[in-house]
Structure formats: structure tokens, C-alpha cells
Amino acid sequence: MAVTATAASRASEAAVGSRGIELRGVTKRYGSNVALRSLELEIRDGEFFCLLGPSGCGKTTTLNLIGGFVGPTDGTIWLRGRRIDTLPPHKRPVNTVFQSYALFPHMSVRGNVAFGLKMDRVRRQETARRVDEALALVGLEEYGDRTPAQLSGGQQQRVAVARALVKRPAVLLLDEPLGALDLKLRQRRQVELSQIHREFGTTFVYVTHDQEEAMSMADRIAVMNLGVIEQLGTPYEIYRRPTSRFVADFIGDANFLDVTVDGDVAVLADGTRVPCADAPRRGSATLMIRPESLRIGDSAASASVRGRAVQSSFLGTRVRIAVETPASQVPLMVAVHGEGPEAVPAEDTDVTVSWSPEDAILLDPARSDG
Question: What is the pLDDT of residues 72-87, one digit of tens each?
Fold first, then answer.
């Protein structure tokens, strides 16, 4: 896990109504490469905020700008109403947890956690008390005398978090902190981080390319692409109401149908006409439907297409069915949950795929590719 922090009071001790992090018109260039383009972003004080996107989208650059590891080419950065982009990293109330953990191998766990306080010349008694609090927060009270080599990877990660939080930063930055862990351990750490955030109350800014990770922990998510924010919202808003094909495709699974909009009707590639909840508008568009919003059967539904089931996959909590249809260039993916084998059509069986019009999102083709 990777965390960056600086000495500051807890978020809960901040003035009522105080502002969080603000990036105002921030651009970052590396030579001819533009990593961020006129970024406007406000992160609320005390929230768990995720920067999500593929490699090269600008999310780590944004994190490094907040931490002070790089400076903006244009624009300003503010924290609780105070401009910080002119301050060096060690003078910002921000701490960072790095993916490599960056623990001192020759120091004990307690020594690692206390290091920043000693550098700040915090009194010994106060240091001991705060180290005890930080270790208790991450569940490592009994491990204070061990060295990093005597800990598991997940325990080392928690030491890194404790070391960052012990200085009581206003903001904790986490850069792909769970990327090196296996799936089950990563899921457990997601729960732990969420609990720590609730207990500590400071602002978490979390960078990841894992959409499930972001959805499981974040209060809000900024989906980034090519140096801009494609969409900003809650996990529900991002998943259920994406504003571009890039976001819809990056967050979860999705089916895309090229359509022509005619009033409140979408005309599919095979001429099928289906009602469209996002109408009225006219012209070319993309209709997005999540696999779990599709149903097999119900030919009387107001929105449906005919096709042929060509393959099914049992995935534990659901069965995924691929359906070829003249209405789409690629098979539609249907997710069937909680049904027995008898509900899954045999391969090469003619089927009807239906959906509720309100579950289909009409995407502007101008924003379809991000």
C-alpha cells in the first residue's frame, strides 16, 4: 500500500464547513505530452475519493500534484481554503502510502511508525501515545517489536498506513496500494481501509485502475481518461448512469447497440424499434444495457430482440449467456442470477432477449469513445 501524509489535525477537528482539496484549472505537461488538461476538481473534506482509470489517464499525476511531488504547469491547488501548490511536500498536511510500503527494514514496527514524529521533534511521551493509537487503529498492537521482515505483506501494508496516519494528516494519498495482493486478501484490505477511514475521519484520495475496488470503497469516483475527468459521481451514478461509452465500458460489463433515434424510439441495426427512456432526440446514438438488466424470454416486452443462444458460462453467482442477434455486431451478454440450470437455454436455441426501457442508457456518439 502507498500512503503520503503530513502533520495536521484530524478532519473531524477541522472547522465546520471547511473546504477540502480543490484543483483549479490544473494542467500538467511533460515536454510535448499533456498529462492533465485544465482539471477542475473538488474533493470534499473527510470523504473517501477514488481516482479511477487506465494506465496513462492522469490519475497518478493528479495524486503527485496534491502531494507536491510534481508541480502544475498551469493552475492552482488548494486545501481547506489555503493554496498549497507553492509549498514543498513536507510543509503540506498530506501523507502518502506507497505501493512498495517503503518501510525501514532495520527498524521495528514501532520505530517505523514513530519515525515521522521523531523527525518533527514530537515529545517522547506524546509519540508513544500516538504510535499506540495508530497501531491499534490498524490492528497491530501486538506486533510493535517485530521487524518488517517478520510480517506478511498485508501486515507491512498496515504498518505503512499507521505510519502515515500517526502524523494526523488532513489528506492521505494512496497510490495503487492493493495492487500486489491476491484477490481475497485485496478484498479483506478494502474492508479494513474503509473501516480505518470511518474511524480516522481524514480525507482519503485513492488511485486505482480496479473498478471493483473503487466501487466498494469510494464515496465518489472520478473516472479519468487521457488527462481529463470523463465522469464524476457516486458509485451508483457511475455504474447506473454513465455519460460516455468509455465510462460504461470501463465500469463493469456492458452491451452496446448502435441505434438511430427517431423521437422516443430507438431503431436497431436490424430494424427493430424499441422505446427509449432517454429520448426525445434524433440521429445516431449508442444504446447501453448492463448484462444483468437483460432477460431471456418475455417476447411481449416493449423492448426485445430475437437471437440465438450460442454459449453459456457458469460463474458461481451467475450464469453468463452469449446471444447472437442481427441487432448487434457482437453477441449480447446476458447475466442470469439465482436461477437453476433449467432457466439456461441450450446452445443453438432461438431465444428472445428483453429489457426495461429505463435500464437502457442512450449515449451520445460524440462521447462514445472517451
Answer: 999 999 999 999 999 9
Which residues contact residue 93 at a Cβ distance below 8 angstroms, ignoring those fewer than 6 apart? Answer: 6, 7, 8, 79, 169, 170, 171
Residue in this structure with the C-alpha cell 502524523, named with its chain if needed:
167
Residue 168 cell numbers, joined = 494526523
pLDDT tens for each residue of 202-239: 999 999 999 989 999 999 999 999 999 999 999 999 99
**Amino acid (1-letter code) at residue 241:** R
| Beta-bridge partners for 36 | 28
Counted residue by residue, the chain has a size of: 370
Residue with cell 501524509: 5
CA 338 – CA 228 distance, rounded (Å): 39
Distance (Å) of CA 102 to CA 136, 339, 353: 21, 48, 52
Residue 302 phi/psi, 5-degree rounding, is -70, -25
**Residues forming beta bridges with residue 104, ordered by sequence position:** none
Q: Cis peptide leading into 280, omega within 30 of 0?
A: yes
Amino acid identity at 90: H
3-state secondary structure the chain: CCEECCCCCCHHHCCCCCCCEEEEEEEEEECCEEEEEEEEEEECCCCEEEEECCCCCCHHHHHHHHHCCCCCCEEEEEECCEECCCCCHHHCCEEEECCCCCCCCCCCHHHHHHHHHHHCCCCHHHHHHHHHHHHHHCCCHHHCCCCHHHCCHHHHHHHHHHHHHCCCCCEEEEECCCCCCCHHHHHHHHHHHHHHHHHHCCEEEEEECCHHHHHHHCCEEEEEECCEEEEEECHHHHHHCCCCHHHHHHCCCCEEEEEEEECCEEECCCCCEEECCCCCCCEEEEEEECHHHCEECCCCCCEEEEEEEEEEEECCCEEEEEEECCCCCCCEEEEEECCCHHHCCCCCEEEEEEECHHHEEEECHHHCCC
What is the pTM for the complete model shown? 0.85
